[in-house]
Amino acid sequence: MRRLAWLSLCAVAVACGGDDAPPAACPPLDPFEVGDATGHPQPLGASASEARAGRLTAADLPSVPSGLVTWQAGDYVLANDRVALVIEDAGPSDLYDPWGGRPVGLARVAGGRLIEPANFGEVFLLSGRASLVTEDVSVLRDGSDGGPAVIRTVGRLSAMPFFDAVTMGILTDLDGWRAAIDYELAPGSHRVDVRYRYLSEVDTNENVSVLHALMYTKRTPAFVPGVGFTDQISTAPWIGLIDERATSWAYVPPQPFGGALSVSGFIGGFAPMFTLAACQPAERLHAQLVIGGPGVDGLIAAMAAGDGTALRTITGTVTRAGAPLAGARVHAVDPTGPTYHTRATTGADGRYTVHVPASAAVRLIAVAESTQTAEAAVAANATTADLTLAAPAPVRITTSDGDAAIPARLQLLPVGGQALPDLPEHFGETRFAGNRLKVEFSVSGDTTLAVPPGTWELVASRGFEHDVVRRPVTAVSGVAQRLDLVLPRVIDTPGVMCGDFHIHTWRSNDSGDDATWKVASAIADGLELPVRSEHEYVADFSAEIAALGAGAWARGLGSIELTSFEVWGHMGVFPLTPDPTKVNAGAPAWQTFPSADDPDAPLTTLSPVAVFDAVRARPEAPVVIINHPRGGANYFDYVGFDPATGMVTDAGAWDTRFTLVEVFNDSGWRSNRDGTVRDWLGLLKAGRKIFAVGSSDSHSITSSPVGYPRTCMQVGTDDPRALTPNGVRDALAAGHSTISGGIYVTARVGTGGPGDTVTGLGPSSMVAVEVRAAPWVDVDAIELVVDGETVDTVPIMPGDADPTDPAVRWRGLLPIDVRADGGGFVVVAAYGDRALEPVHPGRVPFGVTNPIFVKP
């Protein structure tokens, strides 16, 4: 999230609240009733005529394949015989609302068990700019009387910490007010009422602004009725959070959303203000949570059951090559207009069921693997429709380096005018950038693709160190093919391994990428060290690498992207060890805020220096990487760093100990030459030993490849299993690395390489430079930078390549002058102009060394 985006809050609000006048006292009001601490002894055993509330045991909690849900034994549950909502117990909470007492998961119920739990994110239940500092959670009604079951949380309101700064003066401040939240579920219902209760202790009426807000909406994509998949929710009557494989749910405000905003997986919608009467208790329906699923259609049916909407059921079978097709998606849309109704996924028998308006004619579109489509028109009175897809060609592809199987990225591109399926964005189907029909990450080196009939080009690649193979594929319906491909390794890097220290998955609020899929992409692209850097959550990829059986190819080490959202930027902290017993697995704190145990604690954003010092004092002794230091609320902008002088305008916030800057964030040398490269060189000229890091900051594999660029470190081994957190940290911190965006550059002054200090030189010396790249990577020039200034640009011509090793595009000596005061440094970069086609469309090749320091 960036400061400017958050500052748009007031611009889109229906009205802005807030009054800085001190409240006057009122006569004491009766406190909120508190219920039973335990509730029903068997909360998941409700019959069709019951709803129950109680505490969960460890045996009650189902496995969540993604591992994302933050519930645990002892949390509370509201359940009937259909659905269940889990409410966290009081105490410190994971994710962004730190205070417990809020929903942390939901599922459907069958046979007295929670089934198909959603990849639940986070819902913010706000009054003005405040959330509830929960002091107590209890069961107000356990449902044993046959009525609704109710769970109550009680506490006092305080500004939501993580976006405190941007809501101050924009949304109403109810800091310190006593409040309670009731969650109520009736027998047989899919709807949980969420009610706020207030005790007004001021002698004037208070107008309260309302922001309905959700987080982590990338992992369960947002759905708007009639529109489809979108995060633009203005005027929507409700918003669905869709889990295609499990339980979906909807957030329903009392009135349709007014002005709205969507930023980095945060979706907010404003509602009309309401008034709290002076010196009075008050209550209001804040929202309803409707639990349905699986997928869109299950939620559509649950919504209709609650509001009495008449729907028509359409069923049918999707077949391919005469056989039922499992996993196909069937979309129902208006035949001529923009209205999107619903979608469903076929089961193992190829059957689907969709629910559409009772009298609507619809068009059904079946989509298989985002590569094939079939359509059927369904009349207004029809209730069945079958859809048939042509048989694909099964193409088995093996990849090796000539000796053994290797992972590879496999891509299918259209040729000869071959059209791609027309899949509108609001269908919510996965599409890769760059006109790709299909992208597959083969970890085993043996993969079979279902290729639709037509003419395609297969591109097989294995990162930057291997050559690319391109093969035409004419796919004939039902005709099997086999391609055994050799991807020769053309660049050898003994003792060097490359890492990407900035990778997001659906554990982050602003990414929807399955973590295992993300790791598979890194391995297929030849990255040995994919470092997981989730926003505000310590994690690594160890489990995913193990699940893929890929320990010989990659090593997972823990880190975090410390994310002071609206304040002073984002920082990589590496290495860190996840601690599941701590909030957000041990995330470093950058704020202090009130808690039930310490209600008078101030809500304070800590200074960067204090946070960095606390981080470095951790047992792992991690390093701090200044991520994307420019652009909105990021560190160099925050402190007012001037690369021309090496000075800052806010010296108190300027850390003098960091040594690592993410100079290249999904970007190259030339595109950054007047930006973060200039900042980096300015720091070096000012006498700071600062080393560059290159990372992808990948949030979506479909548009941002992991490992472009990558930081390649001297670690003394070629076996990822031999890597240690301390060894990687020390190589990174010492600057014994280069950055590769497809090009590998090595440089030495005498015996010294990147990160080293070479002494005993005369007034001039020579830099030995070697530039290597695979045949498919463009290399045009070398840029020699001495003491922050470009002193030579050397064009690279085809004849410069080593005839015995064509991957060596240029090798030679370049002269440099050595400063007499002993403060010099050398950086060598190489670059090309043509993008890294056909592997990474839009990415431009480059390579750069970290500085070699030279002294007379």
Query: What is the fold named in CATH at topology level of the largest domain?
Result: Beta-galactosidase, Chain A, domain 5
Helix percentage range: under 10%
**Overall average residue pLDDT:** 94
SS class: mainly beta
Q: What is the assembly state of the chains in this entry?
A: single chain
Q: Total domains, how many? A: 5
Characterize the biggest β-sheet: 10 strands, mixed
Radius of gyration, CA atoms, in whole angstroms: 29 Å
Residue windows where pLDDT falls under 50 for at least 5 positions: 1-22
CATH architecture of the largest domain: Distorted Sandwich
- The fraction of residues assigned to DSSP E strands is 35-45%
- How many β-strand runs? 53
What's the number of helices?
Answer: 10
**Apparent shape:** globular
CATH class designation of the largest domain: Mainly Beta
Q: Span between N and C termini?
A: 46 Å
Question: Which features characterize this protein?
Answer:
856 residues, mainly beta, Immunoglobulin-like, nine-stranded antiparallel beta sheet, 37% strand
Structure notes:
The chain is mainly β and 856 residues long. Mean pLDDT is 94; it is low at 1-22.
Write the layout of secondary structure elements.
Elements (H helix, E strand, L loop, with lengths): L2 H4 L2 H4 L38 E5 L20 E5 L2 E5 L15 E8 L2 E3 L6 E3 L5 E12 L7 E11 L4 H4 L10 E8 L5 E9 L6 E10 L6 E3 L3 E2 L9 E3 L7 E4 L7 E4 L2 E11 L4 E11 L3 H13 L3 E10 L2 E2 L4 E5 L6 E6 L5 E7 L4 E7 L3 E7 L8 E3 L3 E8 L7 E7 L23 E5 L3 E6 L2 E8 L7 E7 L5 E6 L9 E8 L11 H10 L4 E4 L9 H6 L12 E5 L4 E6 L16 E2 L11 E2 L2 H9 L6 E4 L8 H5 L20 E6 L10 H10 L5 E5 L14 E5 L10 H9 L3 E5 L2 E5 L8 E2 L5 E9 L8 E6 L2 E7 L12 E10 L6 E8 L14 E4 L2 E3 L2
Parallel strand pairs: 19-26, 27-33, 34-35, 40-41, 41-42, 46-53
Antiparallel strand pairs: 1-2, 2-3, 3-4, 4-5, 6-11, 7-8, 8-9, 9-10, 10-18, 11-17, 12-13, 12-14, 14-15, 15-18, 16-17, 19-20, 19-23, 21-22, 21-24, 24-25, 27-30, 28-29, 28-31, 31-32, 34-43, 36-37, 37-40, 38-39, 43-44, 44-52, 45-47, 47-50, 48-49, 48-51, 51-52, 51-53
